[in-house]
Amino acid sequence: PNGKPHVLMMALLMPYLRDSLESKFNLLPLWEQSNKDEYLASVADCVRAVVTSTNSVVDAKLLEKLPKVEIVSSFSVGTDKVDVAYCKERGIAVTNTPDVLTDDCADLAIALLLTTMRQICSADRYVRKGCWPKQGDYPLSYKMSGKDLGIVGLGRIGKAVAKRAEAFGCKIKYYARSDKKDVPYEYYGSVLELAKNSDMLVVCCAFTKETAKIIDKRVLDALGPEGFLVNISRGGVVDEPELVKALLECRLGGAGLDVYENEPHVPQELWNMDNVVLLPHVASGTLDTRRAMADLVSGNLEAHFSGKPLFTPVT
Ligand code: 8YV
């Protein structure tokens, strides 16, 4: 009745975003509904936009129930949970939140390298548990500065990780679909070759059919018992059971993980390992960045409904 477009929000991502959307649109909160199918059927004829993130699946099955949808706006840079090909076919626009989260993600990748290699979290626990006076000096860890860093996926985030690692004197190498002519780093056409020539591997690529499980047993073994893996991409890029095995068998030096195959479930075998740092998918999780992401989500919707160009379309 107020003429504002109806926007279906999959999950409560951030009260700031909900409030912002509520002020501009008729917000339909799917996460609040106990019978989601019934609710979807009741709003099917008015939903013109869907707001989602990495925790919800927006596939053909859902979109088929919503014949009036014009745009899917994701509160994430990764769009692996959205059926982008189907959207394209139906002429549904898709937007994401790139750039604004690049710094935070790259910062966290470096933090994971340092915390894992220097065992910062475990050393902190050593002090808090009162071990220092009883057990003496903490065991030795691994140096990060000056080491060979392999970056898997040299997109916006990968490049930002490289820039930071340059300041640590690291030798930077990368794997990507193609050799980028605009960077001074060494290109490898295979992840295995990259791993063989790296002390540390940071995974920053998008999760696609091509990148699923590319960090497999052979790659982990190439990294070896003094090698370290950091993953800020998606859990599915790594063969997780093989990673757990490599760590249990001390075939890998350590791992710093922000993402997992079956979030929010983290393999319990890893919980007690001092050479592993486990974060709950927080790479973009600062107030500053999440606000900027929220502004992009609602900004894209406003642009769409006022016939202006989208800020960050997924093409
Ligand atoms: C999540 C992310 O979107 O941007 C991405 O692809 O994985 C994160 O920024 C964020 O956790 C909100 O769900």
UniProtKB/TrEMBL annotation:
Domain of life: Eukaryota
Sorted UniProt keywords: NAD, NADP, Oxidoreductase
GO cellular component, as recorded: cytosol
GO molecular function term, any single one: hydroxypyruvate reductase [NAD(P)H] activity
Sequence ranges assigned to domain D-isomer specific 2-hydroxyacid dehydrogenase catalytic in this UniProt record: 13-313
D-isomer specific 2-hydroxyacid dehydrogenase NAD-binding domain mapped to chain residues: 110-283
Family statement: Belongs to the D-isomer specific 2-hydroxyacid dehydrogenase family.
Protein name: Uncharacterized protein
Gene: LOC112290627
Shown residues within the full chain: 87 to 401 of 401
